[in-house]
Specification:
The protein has 192 residues and is of the alpha+beta class. The protein is built from five helices and nine strands; from the N terminus they run βαββααβββββααβ. A hairpin with a 2-residue loop joins strand 5 (100-106) and strand 6. GO terms for molecular function: metal ion binding; peptide deformylase activity.
């Protein structure tokens, strides 16, 4: 089932999310809905707060980005073949490498894209869909998408990484989004 995406301005996007247990109600269906919602909205990642659930859960499909790159662009991301994976109860163990810019957007902040600087790699501790503990390091585009989705479960948005001048320049667009003055081809939830 395709779920509505929470728009900028909704308080759930600013909540520090909670870990969940294996008996979380209908987790398998929730994950299936998140994948379906992400693809229907042309996203490459989706975090639970974006569908109005303040829990530490997100899904990432960076394979679609990697597969869309030209061969000469792929060399910029050695060892990153992309992933299609769910992350439950994720917590960052460490980050490494120099920060680099990439033009990010967000389903909750439609039609706003800005360059954001993030480290080259991230090591995460999390559980998979079977609640098996995992600890892995991700690099390149995959790390980028993970950082972005991880921010959501910590109550942060990609615009929080922008310099104050850039934030002021997009203030009007953000206000329009929070008031529902935006047209997108997917259903959104606006805070009243």
């Amino acid at each position: 089932m395709i779920l509505p995406i929470v728009a900028y301005g909704h308080p759930v996007l600013r909540k520090m999310c909670e870990d969940i247990t294996p008996d979380y109600p209908q987790l398998e269906q929730l994950l299936a809905n998140m994948w379906e919602t992400m693809y229907a909205s042309n996203g490459v990642g989706l975090a639970a707060p974006q569908i109005n659930r303040p829990i530490r859960l997100f899904v990432v499909d960076s394979e679609q980005i990697i597969n869309s790159l030209e061969e000469d662009e792929k060399k910029d991301f050695p060892g990153d073949n992309g992933i299609k994976q769910a992350f439950i109860n994720a917590h960052i163990v460490s980050t490494a490498g120099e920060e680099w810019a990439y033009n990010e957007g967000c389903l909750s902040i439609p039609k706003v894209r800005e360059d954001v600087y993030r480290p080259e790699s991230v090591t995460l501790r999390y559980v998979d869909e079977k609640f098996q503990p995992q600890e892995k390091t991700f690099t390149g585009i995959t790390a980028r998408v993970i950082f972005h989705e991880y921010d959501h479960i910590d109550g942060k948005l990609f615009i929080d990484h922008l310099k104050p001048l850039k934030r002021r320049m997009i203030k009007g667009k953000l206000e329009d989004i929070s008031k529902g003055k935006i047209n997108v081809d997917y259903k959104m939830i606006f805070h009243k």
